[in-house]
Design goal:
9-stranded antiparallel β-sheet, 7-stranded antiparallel β-sheet, 16 strands, alpha+beta
Length: 317
């Protein structure tokens, strides 16, 4: 199988019908959306693409379509992503609409898909691969999944394989059924007559510049050029899923926070540290609450030269 997807949809109604009707691209709306998805990041328009050819863009490229009742985003950032790692700002962008994530890769047999309701509530999230096993299985299983979990689609093991396939079904088989049920199309196999022609769905193409800042986490992939919402939401996870968080501006300039009870930090407090260009300019303050950590990070994003009214102690590493 050669199926790969890195797809996010914001849908107001039936996705398949909206794709049938998606003949004309709203370019101005697509450009405005990209600016919101990557605040402060340099973006250059490139040749337009289409959903059939660009559903899994290479690194540095982004394809977006804004149509009546449907927004389509294809981005390398969505490749082999766990639903729980979707950027909060990207989820919030779909407020008031159904949000559908589909990420599949035929080389690693990775599958991740998820659905959020119009109010942002997670309805279903699945993530699995033969290497990592079942990573996410949240929410009520959808009708098209039932036969897979019931064992009615086992993998036919190759006679040359020393070990049986480590999952009860093949992720890409479920991935194709998820595409059909949630998005109204398939990639592998013969599409049904009523399915849209993906090569007729136009997408505006963009090349992303090097990010000016990166949000690094103790768990989960880094977030390039995060929005203020991305940062704030991750700060709120300190101590509840995350041990530390770093906003890296590059060139030995960063702000980081870590939760107490780990890394030799006293329990019940947070250490917030910032470096100003070299190890000789490294400073720390200790705070008691997540609210205070969030306040420091908000101020840093607005003005990296500001220090607020807290006491910062210079430390030597």
């Amino acid at each position: 199988m050669g199926a790969k997807t890195a797809l996010l949809l914001y849908a107001e109604g039936d996705v398949g019908q909206a794709l049938h009707d998606a003949a004309e691209l709203d370019r101005a709306a697509a450009e405005a959306l990209v600016a919101r998805l990557f605040p402060g990041r340099d973006v250059v328009a490139v040749e337009d693409g289409n959903l059939g050819r660009n559903i899994n863009p290479t690194a540095g490229l982004l394809y977006v379509g804004v149509f009546r009742g449907l927004t389509v985003i294809c981005a390398a950032d969505l490749g082999e992503i766990r639903p729980g790692d979707l950027r909060p700002g990207w989820l919030a962008e779909g407020a008031g609409r159904r949000v559908i994530l589909h990420s599949m890769h035929s080389v690693s047999d990775f599958l991740g898909f998820a659905v959020w309701g119009a109010d942002g509530t997670l309805e279903r999230a699945v993530c699995l691969s033969p290497d990592d096993g079942i990573v996410e299985d949240r929410g009520d299983r959808l009708p098209f999944e039932q036969a897979y979990w019931a064992g009615r689609h086992p993998v036919d093991d190759d006679a040359d394989d020393a070990e049986p396939y480590p999952l009860p079904f093949h992720p890409l088989d479920l991935g194709e059924d998820a595409l059909a049920a949630l998005c109204g199309f398939v990639i592998e196999g013969m599409p049904l007559e009523e399915m849209p022609d993906l090569y007729r769905v136009p997408l505006a193409g963009f090349r992303l510049g090097v990010p000016r800042l990166t949000l690094e986490r103790s768990h989960g992939r880094p977030i390039a050029q995060p929005s203020a919402l991305d940062v704030e939401s991750q700060v709120r996870r300190l101590g509840s899923g995350l041990d530390y968080l770093i906003v890296d501006m590059g060139g030995e300039n960063y702000l980081q926070a870590a939760v107490g009870g780990r890394f030799e930090i006293p329990a019940g407090v947070f250490w917030v540290e910032r470096r100003e260009g070299s190890p000789d300019l490294h400073f720390r303050c200790e705070v008691d609450t997540l609210g205070e950590v969030a306040e420091i990070f908000r101020g840093y994003l607005v003005n990296q030269d500001g220090w607020g009214d807290r006491h910062w102690e210079q430390i030597w590493l």
